[in-house]
Amino acid sequence: MLRLLKKLAAGTPPAQPMPEPTPVAAAPDKVDPYMLGLHDAMLSGWFNQQTGELFTGFPVTAQDTLLDVGCGDGGNVHFCAMRGANIIIADIEAAKVEATRQRLADTPARSIECHVTDCNPLPIADETATRVVSTEVIEHVDDPAQFLAELVRVGKPGALYLLSVPHPSSEDLQKDIAAPEYFQKPNHIRIISEEQFKAMVSDAGLEVISHSQYGFYWSMWMLLFWEAKVDFSNADHPLLNHWANTWQAILASPRGAQIKQALDAVVAKSQVIIARKP
Q1: Which of 80, 118, 225, 244 is most exposed, with the fewest beta carbons within 10 Å of its own?
Q2: DSSP for 64-116?
Q3: Residue 150 DSSP SS3
Q4: Number of folded domains in the chain?
Q5: How many CB atoms lie within 10 A of CB 139?
Q6: Is 154 within 8 Å of 128 (Cβ atoms)?
Q7: Residue at 243 is within a domain
Q8: With bands split at pLDDT 50, 70 and 90, how would you rate the model's confidence at 115?
Q9: CATH of the domain at 210
């Protein structure tokens, strides 16, 4: 757009003097969609600094050994490292493991152990971890039962598990709009219903403690992202910018929290299970 404006400015000047511009109110500051998403996640129960819970019902302390399988960019495990826990990370992508290792280098984590692995099997001893995290991974793997069996194997008796997968309401919303590769290997190769998710976790031998959902904001953002056809690393588009501004205004409204809760219950980006190993 800036390039287009420069070209127009370099054209033939008008025959008549241009009128004085009418003063307008300053445009509102642009909302960072990712920071807004972080704020939305915190309202949903993530990253509670006061209680030390990575997610509601999942406290992490310096006495824990926490394993994050599919660590991605390290956002979840960084919170846990800041609690002083012993950290183990695993991901199939070496670049992500190295980036996360560097991200954790200055944290008070007691130790940091890194593995590049497809988790079949995990190169970790039986009954190692007191906390196991795996978010938005199961929808990618070929054999969820085998994957979950490995997570259960490496947890100590009494270990807590934080597991999440995309919610079917959001996945169904995007089916005919998302880029085809979004629902192809190595991306989302299955849509997991609430009942299937609970059954997967229970069949693996874990006791389901809670099952919740959140993320209407991200569901709508992703829907608009496909329409905007921009790069994810630089997702700057009027559709996305307007949506972020709208959601921020909703959250800031007197009943913003109530509206968010109602919409999260209808179309959620993710479903989260907290479980315990007997």
Answers
A1: 118
A2: -EEEEES-TTSHHHHHHHHTT-EEEEEES-HHHHHHHHHHHTTS--SEEEEEE
A3: helix
A4: 1
A5: 18
A6: yes
A7: no
A8: very high
A9: 3.40.50.150
